[in-house]
Design brief:
Keywords: FAD, Flavoprotein, Oxidoreductase. This protein has 395 residues and is α+β, with helices and mostly antiparallel strands. The protein has three domains: 114 residues, Acyl-CoA dehydrogenase/oxidase, N-terminal domain (Butyryl-Coa Dehydrogenase, subunit A, domain 1, Orthogonal Bundle), CATH 1.10.540; 101 residues, Butyryl-CoA Dehydrogenase, subunit A, domain 2, CATH 2.40.110; 147 residues, Up-down Bundle (Butyryl-CoA Dehydrogenase, subunit A, domain 3). Helix content is 50%, strand content 14%. Strands 1, 2, 3, 4, 5, 6 and 7 form a seven-stranded mixed beta sheet that branches. α1 packs parallel to α3, α7 packs parallel to α9 and α9 runs antiparallel to α10. The mean pLDDT is 95.
Length: 395
Amino acid sequence: MPATASTGLDADFYSFQDLLTPVERDAALRLRDFMEREVRPIADDCWERAEFPHRLVPGIAATGVLGAAWPESRRFPNRALFRGWAALEIARVDASFATFVGVTSGLAMGAIAVGGSAEQRERWLPPMGRGEVIGAFGLTEPLAGSDTARGLRTTATRRGGTWVLDGAKRWIGNATFADITLIWAKDVDDGRVKGFIVPQGAPGFAAVKIERKQSLRGVQNADITLTGVEVPERDRLQRVDSFKDLAGVLGPTRIGVAWEAVGIALGAHEAAVRYAREREQFGRPIGSFQLVQQKLAENLADVTAGLAVCVRVSQLEDAGTRRDEHAAMAKAFCTARMRDVVARARAVLGGNGIQLDHGVARFFADAEAVYSYEGTYDMNTLIVGRAITGRQAFV
């Protein structure tokens, strides 16, 4: 059976959860209870229909995880370690729901918290933390993914007290229903990247759902077009004036994705263990066979290694000593191990591993998207490589 709020996680083999404070541990258990009661029973159906369960937004907001990092929206004392653990708890049940939370709470709220003025923070963060305002984050473009630092094509032209945005964005999570989207554009005058808060329904703003996805199907990704979208100066992020400023948002969220990857791996591993205990072949449970036990042991080792990396990089974040290459290594390592775990878990289930009803197929498919977003494996390894050698190899 899935772990409940009272039983803990068997796959937390080295008891990393004990590093949480009592307040953080209680919050994590409440979150686990919400995910088990409200999300798990509908996750497969939502994935199959490519729908997002909007009715659950107030419930996830009530757990206090939205905007937990920022004083304007924080419900209780917590650290980066807790926020990572929360991402794991959500992804362990549903990676699509974890992505929704990561986009609105990590990327959108993070952009406002890091790049916004005091007035912007006070205006947006409290209602976003309550789930009353949903955010999206518009950075990636049809022709600019890994090279957004140099290749951003969306433009911002200032005309008096108004900015005019023109361009296109792609793969923007939440964008079909978000109340606001953080749009990143290049100032035509100085060539610098700036951020803008654009409300849903703004004239010239259109978000069209991307169809036929085979990963993270519950996430409502969109193609966005911006045609003469007018944004008042008060809705420009006042403390962002370069891509380097934007990078201050991406480091913490990249750590969050590493935690999500471990959560996905953990969820797939748990499903494989349940199956191995129940499925009988040759007159006994397949969990009694050596080759199955080997796969499960290797999966537990990869989950444990990923947890160790995430815990340490979160501790560095809390200490204020985390560097870009630390976050990059965590994201690359944990997503690579995640792919290995979900593949072995699917193998344990044999043919049943490709059917949603047995608890692994959804993780197996979702892992591919998580492996790529928030910086591909290749780009993150190059960030680490630059730190090792002192030489950049991006181009």
